[in-house]
Structures are given as structure tokens and as C-alpha cells.
């Protein structure tokens, strides 16, 4: 929402001048959201079936799929855990499986086995249907606003 006249003019100008660019970016982000959901679902199903994992989703893919909670357990003491990937200080392009050493049990020291991942989950009670068009539009809008803010700070 624009707060000043200059912001309103900028938004109107962007809508006129960059409409094709915005539409292309939104379509690309929508495809990324769909693909991230598919990758996470495939990874979860293979993990649950005990099958070999040929791929590992990234932190960004888990967040895009709206399944930001990684569940795991210690095979030695059977303590389970859950970590919110949005709170981890790692690059968003990092593979989920690269987090295993950091998630390993602290209670089983000195010979703690590596943690075993059990899946990616969404927030409890968050079963509302997704509107990928709106989500993509919001992501593009936020990214464009951040780029504009960064340009203003550099000036």
C-alpha cells in the first residue's frame, strides 16, 4: 500500500512501464512455487517409504512449499526434534540433508550418531488452500520493493 504521493506515482508508473516484466516474473515465481511443492512431496514420500533419496530439497524449496518444519530423531536415544527452517542462519540454497551434522544429538556425546530426518511438515492447522498466483505476486512485489529501497539507500 502506497503511503505518499510519490510512492503512488511510482507504483502507477511501474504498473504501466513494467507490466510485462512483472507478469513474466510472477509466472516464473509461480512455477517455482509449484515445483518446490512437488520436490518436497517426492522427498517426503521417498523418505517415509525408506527408499533411496536421489535428491534433497533446499531450505528455500521447503519454505516455498509451506513446509518449513524439519523433523528428525536420534537413532541412539530415540529423542525426536523439530526445527523451523525459517529460523536457521543458513543460506536458503542449502540442501536439507546438509543440516544433519548440526541436528545430531547432544545427549549421546561423545559418539553420537547422525540424526535421521523424518520429513518436512507444515504448521499445525495450516491446511488452508494455496493460491499460487497471489503468493507469486506478493513475492515479486516484495522483491521489487526491496530492490527500490536498496537503490534509494545507495543514492
Would you kindly provide a written description of the structure presented here, covering whatever features stand out?
By secondary structure, this protein is mostly helical. 49% of the residues lie in helices and 10% in strands. It has helices spanning 5-17, 19-48, 59-64, 100-103, 132-154; strands spanning 69-73, 80-84, 116-121. It has a three-stranded antiparallel sheet with strand order 2-1-3. α2 (19-48) crosses α5. The longest helix has 30 residues, at 19-48. The relative contact order is 0.15.
Q: What spatial order of strands do you see in the largest sheet? A: 2-1-3
Shape, principal axes of CA atoms: elongated
Mean pLDDT: 85
Structural class computed from helices and strand pairing: mainly alpha
Q: What's the SSE pattern? A: HHHEEHEH
Helical content stands at 40-55%
Report the C-alpha radius of gyration, rounded: 20 Å
Count of individual helical segments? 5
Distance between the termini: 23 Å
Number of strands: 3
Low-confidence regions: none
Beta-strand share of residues = 5-15%
Biggest sheet details: 3 strands, antiparallel
Strand and helix map with partners:
Blueprint: H1 5-17, H2 19-48, H3 59-64, E1 69-73, E2 80-84, H4 100-103, E3 116-121, H5 132-154
Antiparallel strand pairs: 1-2, 1-3
Helix pairs in contact: 2-5
Features:
single chain, 155 residues, mainly alpha, 3-stranded antiparallel β-sheet, 5 helices, 3 strands
Summarize the structure.
This protein has helices at residues 5-17, 19-48, 59-64, 100-103, 132-154; strands at residues 69-73, 80-84, 116-121. The protein is mainly alpha-helical. The protein has a 3-stranded antiparallel sheet with strand order 2-1-3.
